[in-house]
Every structure is written in C-alpha cells, then in structure tokens.
Amino acid sequence: MRKTLVFALSMFLAASQYAIAAPELRGDHPDSYVVVKGDTLWGIAGKFLKEPWYWPEIWQVNPQIRNPHLIYPGDMLALVYIDGQPRLTLAQRGEMAGTYKLSPKKRVSELASAIPAIPLDAIAPFLTNTQIVTEEELANAPYVLLGKHGNLIVGAGELVYGRGEAELDASYGIYRRSTVYSDPDTGEFLGIEARSIASGRTTEKQGEIVTVSITKSSEEIRQGDRLLQQDDREINTTFYPSNPEGEVRGKIISVVDGVSQIGQYDVVTVNRGTREGMKEGTVLAIYRKGEQVRDPYTKEIIQLPAGRAGIMMVFRAFEKVSYALILSAERPLSIMDEVRNP
C-alpha cells in the first residue's frame, strides 16, 4: 500500500464555503511564535485563534520563502496587520527548514521534519489497519485455515493457507471481526469494524486453497480470520479542516479501547458518514448531555440542555460511520454525547 506523507501547511488553505463566521483572535494571542519540535498545525492555530479551523482566513503566504506552506521547528511566525486585517506570516526560517539529503541524482527536502497537521501517531492504525464492512462482505471473504507448519502463530516471512475466492499475487490483509455498529436512535445497522491482524501477499492458488506469505503481523493469526484485499489507495495525512456542508446531528457511538471517559487525542466513532456529508477534515462540536434535576416546586424531573464540551475532526469517513480525533475537550466526554456543527 502506497503512502504519501505530506506534512504541509496547505491543510489550512481551503476555507469552508459554508463558514459564515469571521475568525476571531484569542485575547491572549502572542505577536509572534517560534515553532518547536512536537508542535502541530492545529495546536499552533489555537494559540492565535479561538476557532483553529479558521486558520486559512489569516494565513499570509510569503512568496519569497521557499516552500512557504511548510513550517519547521525553529521557524518564527509573526502576526501582522494588512489593510487593517490580522494576518499570520512566516517571518523567519529556522535551521530545520534548510536541512537537505544529498544524492548523486537529486536533492530532496526533509519533509519528515515539517510540522504535521494533527498528531498522526494517534490515528495511524485507523488510516491503514481498520475497515468498516457489511455482514455480506465479511461472510464472503476468504478465511484462514492453517499455518504451513500446522500452526497459527505466524510471523513475517511465514506462510498461511486460506480458503475462498482470492486473486493470485495480490495484497491481502488478515482481519478479525470486531465491533458491530448500530444507530443508537434508529437501530439501523451501520457496519462491522474489521480489525487488522496481519498483512501479506498471495503466492500460490490451487482451486479454493490459497497460500499467503505474511509480510507483517501484530498478533497471533487465528483460524477463521478473514482475508480482505488491500487497495493501493493513497493514504492521506494532510487534512483540510472545514465546517460541515449542511446541518449535522449525530452521536459518539464508540471509543478506542473501550475507556469510559474520552479526552484529547482519543479516537472515536460517530454515527454519521459520507452519506451525511462527512469527509476527511470535517470539524464537529461535541455537546455533553445535560444533567437531570428535580424541580423543587413541581417535583418534575427536568432534562437540562446539552452544553458544548469539545471539538473533533473526522479523519476517515465510511458510508454510514466515521472515525474522528478529539482535538479539544473542556470536560470528560462519553459515548452518546452529541456531535453538531461547530
């Protein structure tokens, strides 16, 4: 699977056509900021703006600087005013931006040292190793029978036998059935999370029996694990934060590792997907369910309204569900908290 790791400030250069509010500077914003190792573009935006996804409105490209959309540790950003409007510009390059790899044929910039959009280590497994499938897709997929030596504790370089319709000389992931998602309000089936166990390539095929050479594994392969073909889609690691294209009302329906309280940089699943307009970069506000209180006079139980409690960004969207990263949390979040337009 081919990956393109582009850590570019251009993630902030496409403002949503549906954004109607103007960007508002924080009251305690700095006049300048020197980028440090470990920064993310989202975090830097949050130092200047109350709503970080409005960064495109104030970013001022300096055409005299090579690769002005990439920023590196050591770079200085300065807040200036042009025609009375605040603009953030790259005032000075740091040492990291001038680092190059030399070879006889080409000179390549150190893209890996540029500041990423969001913490990629938090979402990496969900960019490549997880799929949302239907019951039929999972049932019809080939499955593991046995390791070549009669075992199923298989590592890279070893072989497993599978059964089912599989293509020869093709990349396959070995997946295990995980969470079944249903809409908490309507009961609609939303999909099955298939979790990656290993990956490999088919090397032989005799009738329904296929041999898979394992190239990578994260845990023991079990009999019955399913083989799902992997495509060569380009893995996106550059995100363009934007408001949803229409009104969104959904809920957090799952969280990684099943923790009871959700915080910053946790990955969650929401019951809205591409059919509801979700796409990579969609920003949603999180509203924590209000408390119930007994009216002191009527003795009725009153449901208080939900209050805004955080911000998330979708980084991978399927038809009916999406994965999102919690970018800020003002208080502990929980499954069934609402998500809405920010």
Helix content: under 10%
Largest sheet: 7 strands, antiparallel
Number of strands: 21
Q: Structural class given helices, strands, pairing? A: mainly beta
Shape descriptor reads: globular
Low-confidence stretches: 1-20, 97-111
Distance between the termini: 34 Å
Provide the domain count: 3
| Mean model confidence by pLDDT | 80
Q: What is the ordering of alpha helices and beta strands? A: EHEEEEEHEHEEEEEEEEEEEEEE
What does this protein look like?
- By secondary structure, the protein is mainly beta.
- The protein has 3 domains: 109 residues, no CATH class; 106 residues, Elongation Factor Tu (Ef-tu), domain 3; 92 residues, FlgT, C-terminal domain (Thrombin, subunit H, Beta Barrel), CATH 2.40.10.
- Helices cover 7% and strands 37% of the residues.
- The protein has 3 helices and 21 strands.
- Strands 7, 8, 9, 10, 11, 12 and 13 form a 7-stranded antiparallel beta sheet that branches. Strands 14-15-20-19-16-21 form a 6-stranded antiparallel beta barrel.
- The longest helix is centred in the middle third of the chain and has 9 residues.
- The N terminus is likely disordered.
Characteristics:
globular, mainly beta, Thrombin, subunit H, 6-stranded antiparallel barrel, 342 residues, Elongation Factor Tu (Ef-tu), domain 3
Task: Describe the structure concisely.
The chain has helices at 41-48, 120-128, 135-140, and strands at 32-34, 59-60, 76-82, 85-92, 100-102, 107-109, 130-133, 143-147, 159-163, 171-182, 189-206, 209-217, 226-229, 249-255, 267-270, 283-288, 292-294, 301-303, 307-317, 322-329, 338-340. The chain contains three helices and 21 strands.
